[in-house]
Amino acid sequence: MPGPEAGSCGEHFIRLLGSAVEWIDGLPIGNGRQGVMVCGGASEDVMHLNDARGWSGSAASAHQGPRISGDHARQALDDARGAIAEGRGFDAGSPLQALQHRHSQTFLPLAALTLKYSISGESIQGTVERELDLERAIHTVRTDLGGDEELVRRSWASRPDEAVVIEVESPVPLEIALSIDSTLRVLARESAESSTRLLVQLPSDVPPSHDEVPGSISYDGTPGASSRGAVVVQWRHDGREVVVEGKSHMVGVTRCIVVLSTAIVDDGLPLPGARVAAAVAVERADAVWRRGIDEVRRSHEAANRDLYTRVGLELGGAPPSTPTDQRVSAVAARGLSTDPGLAALLFHYGRYLLISSTREGSPPPNLQGIWNAQLQPPWSSAYTININLQMNFWPAEVTQLSELAVPLFDFVDLLAQTGSEPALRLLGTSGWAAHHNSDRWGYALPVGNGTHDPKWAFWPLGGIWLARHLQDHREFGAVSAASVEDFARERMWGPVRSAAEFALAWLREDGRGLHTSPSTSPENAFIDQDGRVSSVGRSATLDLSLLRDLFQTFDELASLLNVIDDPLVATARRVWPRIPDPSVTEDGLVAEWEDAGPDEDPQHRHQSHLWFLYPGTRPFPVELEAAAGRSLDVRGNDSTGWSVVWRLALRARLRDPLGISPLLRSMIRPAEDQDGPFAGGLYRNLLASHPPFQIDANLGFVAATAEFLLQSHRGEIELLPALPAEFDAAGTVRGLVARPGVVVDVEWRRGELVFARLRSRVGEKVVLVRYREAILRLRVGSRAVVVRGEDFASRLGGP
């Protein structure tokens, strides 16, 4: 019987007809450091360029005033706790606002490169086709010139060479006008033969567009106040160059190659610092020419394929040649069952976007990945760590992209350093704490300028959630058996122990038991006993779930590393069994707080109180499953993009395919047809809408889809635990990873398993694996079997 690897999936192309009219119509390419939104047209291509290090401000931004003293902060906390203890949660909000700092910094556009094409002085007017090949990571624009002739442009962002390459090919001689501009402060524009350099200064401060605070985008020339950058463009062609109105144009061109390189430095005076960046960027561009474009293209494709082809998913559907946006509209009208392959394409696209936006040595992808064209983008295009940054990395472990999580681990290390000061000064604790907004510099303070609602500004457990990803990395077998202790000691122990130190200090105890106070449940609110909307209470369920999980991880690490004389370990072991489980309200829902009234918004986009179900993995009382299902029923099926994705993953964990189907409809629909601030959908290019665009839903959809097909958090491997009706007809998936490091291939027909193969992540042979308390246990529907290496195939019908 053929396995899932037989044949090839056709769902690796995004195809669009017509020019990219605006930025959100473009198609993204990236190499983890450089991101380009390519807006192709009939006679013009605009390449909107970002560098992952291109943020406003600096590490010093968090130290700008106003800053509350430790004594005043402690008094504010005492006042808030007193109000909560007396049942006056509404009155706790004002003291917590006193803890607020200013804002995190902003991810910025670097420049825009424009290429204009004409023939004999006339602009080209042909029809346009645009294509993004996800496996090769190459973007192509074709303009019909009549007959069988077409103008073709290909572009890609090479990871091995850290440069963007654009190839232009035409059957007739072209005139090409090239220009590059930036909305940043331009320090110098330097041109030479077939090259130009743009030297820029990044702002020292960019307030968020949603914040009504005094001040605007500002520049400070003081060393260390902001970064300096350079964009280098070099080109070669088979025509000649002429000067038109003082600008260089290429004439008589049938083939042209453009190389685009960038660099960002954080030190030095503006212009000298930018020249240092330029020297780095020039060397990167020069290296491309030395290697040769064909070799650069080959190594680029090989590097992308190495990551991209580790996992495959095939569901069938419309012919891949059908324009992608037309497929989305058709599915919205007739249902995903008519084209389930569109879900496979969205799955592959999410993996492509993760590969393109995160690599070791660069900051992790932000709210928009590494693609942004605005100086004041939505929510500063920063890091929101009460769900969104975490969701970006949900697919990393389960789809064999574990190495792409390294930037997140580096970010955790950074926050563990920067978060110690606010933990001590504002919260009066040891260890480290991070609130809901952050940036490249590791901003860890509560934001809000003293005026914003604590429901989103005050939440000091962001670091604890982030630290969970270190444990996921270990549980999915991303670390070899020979290296697991080294990873635990070198990457996990420091930030996890320090987070536990904060958590133990933050927990409080009274006659009613352990609790957290003040406590918010990210961005949600409830109606208090006096009928007022309150966002501050006691023991949010998310707090308790995160703390329990952290202490158990800390305990496991201590055992693994044979730590026997650390008093913090002993304290955590005593405490975590006493942390209450989530509770169930009188109407059968999972309570979001202890002692809180009804939700202000029962259909709120956050599902923080259900964290224990997903992404949590620890056992919980069985009655909570039914309460979680009812809670999701109340939340509904329509929300912003990332919220729909979270609900998909939660329904999968409940093994509820009937609940998955309406959520798939909410996910796969044209974003342009939706109204309201929290109505998601997909743009023409399949990027997900919050609205506006946020990348978390694209990345999270990969992980949610994997949960339909494979689960391994209960101590056994479950195949097809929540297969939705839209996927029933037939499908294959290969390369997904189950805990504790088992690669799984599955094929099904009419909803029934017909083939499965399991192999160790470190080799092709299935090895005897102990997972939690059992030899590897496998569940297929209601049947549970114990798999012992060589006999797994006969039990599952394989060869």
UniProtKB/TrEMBL annotation:
InterPro entries: 6-hairpin_glycosidase_sf, 6hp_glycosidase-like_sf, AFCA-like_C, Alpha-L-fucosidase, GH95_cat, GH95_N_dom
Key words of the record: Hydrolase
Domain Glycosyl hydrolase family 95 catalytic, residue spans: 293-709
SUPFAM superfamilies: Six-hairpin glycosidases (SSF48208)
GO molecular function: hydrolase activity
Glycosyl hydrolase family 95 N-terminal domain boundaries: 19-212
Domain Alpha fucosidase A-like C-terminal: 711-773
Presence of keyword Hydrolase: yes
Pfam family, one: Glyco_hyd_65N_2
Protein name: Glycoside hydrolase N-terminal domain-containing protein
Native source species: Luethyella okanaganae
